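Dock 3-methyl-2-oxobutanoic acid; give full complex structure.
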Amino acid sequence: MAIEKKRHIRVFDTTLRDGEQAPGCSMTRTEKVRVARQLEALGVDVIEAGFPIASTGEQEAVKAVSDAVERVSVAALARANETDIRTAWEAIKDAAAPRIHTFIATSPIHMTHKLSMTPKEVLQRIRDAITYARSFCENVEFSAEDASRSEIPFLVEVTAAAIEAGAVVVNLPDTVGYATPQGYRHMFEEIRSQLPQAQRICLSAHCHNDLGLGTANSLAAIEGGAGQIEGTIMGIGERAGNVALEEVIMALKVRGDQYQADTGLDTRLLCETAALVSEVTGVGIPPNKAIIGHNAFAHEAGIHQDGVLKNAMTYEIMTPASVGALGNRLVLGKHSGRHAIREHIRSCGETLGDDEVEMVYRAVLGLADLQKNVTQADFRNIVNAVKSGKGETVKR
Ligand code: KIV
Ligand code: ZN
């Protein structure tokens, strides 16, 4: 039987640039270096360390990241003008694998109202900016900002011009989170089918989450031929944020049967990485957040607890260990079943008879009717009361 080889999808992490643009998420130089080292351990392909033209502190932070990591490419963002590009290069030139990332908007609304430029002028600016960036380094990425609201014939011209001028990655962002999976995939397919030269470079997807479609859109782009995905840890970023990288990475890993693609990252470091980003930015991880949330492997319903105790795969599609979570948790509450109660008693090192287990079970349910959670301490008290024969007096 022939074994199909999975496509390698590169991961471009922009937690330190687009993620940092979220309100209240700015990071100091030391914090950026800590996160960058963790991203390097995780195995991302590119770390976008910042937007050096923004401030002197930002230039220093990008430089510090460039000096701190070795096994990963470091990118710096620059608008499509010489000052931005030169400043970006100064900040990353000592990195092991520097990448200049330059961008300009290509949608009618941005060209008319924001840039006041004609499509022809934008095309010329793209050629000039990439040619200038290439005078510093070979690794140049170009982004057509607001690509998902750009006209496809113009995007084809833009991509052709970018490739001709020397870009090795062309990114087609869904800057305002407007795309749908079908539309975004179609855009990649069109570019690839109309431009044979697009096979020579890497097309990249960059999704925002305004409609909550970031993960679906990134996966659709991969199906359409994108070879790189851009996003942030925990999905932090402007407005509703960027696509959460951990979601796309695990979707490819868990559903490799469908996508035939993988990132090759050490996914066991995902929870640890999210915890660090959360600590540094002060943004809490929602308990129900996919992959990294505290409840991602928690079960309260008795039917689920029973299933998980028999075989975790009944209600878990990946192991907690595969994302670096501590383990699954059987939460005690009013939906808990006898099987989970027995398991809890066992894990407390106790052995109780059937009648006693029944008393503990009833007491847990009674308490759960009165308060949101039954804590470990509550449970211990119940077990002790039952053991000492005071089970009937346990609070109900
Ligand atoms: O969302 C976007 O378009 C961007 C670009 C600068 C790549 O962040
Ligand atoms: Zn963005």
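Observed: The chain has a mean pLDDT of 96.
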